[in-house]
Design brief:
It is a single chain. A hairpin with a 4-residue loop joins strand 1 and strand 2. Helix 1 packs across helix 2 and helix 3 crosses helix 5. About 30% of the residues lie in helices and about 30% in strands. It has a five-stranded mixed β-sheet with strand order 3-2-1-4-5, sandwiched between helices. Strands 8-7-6-9-10 form a five-stranded mixed β-sheet. The protein has five helices and ten strands, in the order βββαβαβαββββαβα. The chain is of the alpha/beta class.
């Protein structure tokens, strides 16, 4: 059964997680998570060493490496991408980029059992990175694709405006700039929740099983600055 490592430095948080799938037994998930603004370079590789040591494994035991591909902090994304690419290239293992917005949705679903989520991150310059998701039994389905847009243009996904939505991520600190219909459609907000590698490694395991791993040199962070369209609900 596969063994995967995931890294993330897309926000003020830094995290690493190792997942070992086990046939006929519960999966083993080991993780580290710290709020470490401006210390990602110093903490990321030690976290990798820690989760491997706790699992009693060497890097060569890994079947794939994953990382938070964005959107998020430009510097943090480059740190995570460079670290993950270096590991994957040196080990000759496939690399998988995982959406930070999707990981946020899975994290809120796993911890709080929310089903309909709009994940949003503060993109600076008066904009947010956003996407909408439906979660059920650990599965995450995209209802509105990732985009970067001003908070006043955020909307509920078409055909889903009657659901009890939850807002997750730092983008919701711009609540006062959100449209009234979005504010009315949200039952709760979790602006302080950050993406975590332990959720990314679960998403990466699904992608790996589907054959989506790629050579390290081909994987790049996602910044979303050229993706701006969201369909307004009717």
């Amino acid at each position: 059964m596969p063994i995967l490592l995931a890294l993330d430095a897309s926000s003020s948080a830094c995290s690493a997680a190792l997942l070992r799938r086990r046939e006929g037994a519960d999966d083993e998930l080991i993780s580290r998570f710290e709020l470490t603004p401006r210390a990602h370079t110093r903490r990321l590789l030690p976290m990798v060493d820690e989760v491997l040591a706790e699992a009693g494994m060497a890097p060569t035991d890994l079947d794939a490496v994953a990382y938070g591909r964005g959107p998020g902090s430009f510097t943090g994304l480059r740190i995570a991408a460079g670290t993950a690419q270096g590991l994957a290239f040196g080990l000759e293992r496939p690399l998988l980029g995982v959406s930070t917005l999707q990981a946020l949705a899975l994290g809120a679903h796993r911890r709080h059992h929310y089903r309909y989520l709009i994940t949003a991150l503060d993109a600076r310059m008066g904009e947010v990175y956003a996407a909408a998701w439906q979660c059920h039994r650990g599965r995450v389905e995209c209802l509105a694709e990732e985009a970067v847009l001003p908070p006043e243009r955020l909307c509920l996904p078409a055909g889903h405006d009657d659901h009890d939505w939850v807002g997750v991520g730092s983008g919701w600190t711009l609540w006062d700039d959100m449209p009234a219909e979005v504010q009315a459609g949200l039952g709760q907000c979790l602006p302080d929740l950050d993406a975590a590698a332990e959720d990314m490694v679960l998403l990466a395991a699904e992608a790996f099983a589907a054959g989506e791993g790629r050579p390290a040199a081909e994987v790049q962070p996602v910044y979303l600055r050229d993706r701006v369209a969201w369909q307004k609900s009717r």
